[in-house]
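[Q] Does anyone have a clean structure-token version of this?
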Amino acid sequence: MASTAPTTETIDQARIRLAQKARESGVKVRIGSDGRFFVSSASRFGHEHFVTGWSCDCDGFARHGRCMHHSAVLACIGWLPTADGPGDTAKQLETAVATATGTA
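[A] Here you go.
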């Protein structure tokens, strides 16, 4: 039986996937009166994470360097990477952005 190597996604592919997961999970991005970003937690009702264009205060970001909260903000500010990896399509990117920003 032939073995298959595990598929490894690039950081850009992960951010696109996580932006879509954020929308599917119902997280919301809120921009404070001072321009700071806050994103609702999918696992802790009523909790918001402080997110910048470079980081998030959640455990997932601390552990992996990426998370759905951060990806949702990247989508909102137009910093979500373009889909150029194997298997990615322009439609997937369009869907991820629309999903993360709530316009889907």
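[Q] Thanks! Anything notable?
[A] Residues 11-25 form the longest helix (15 residues).
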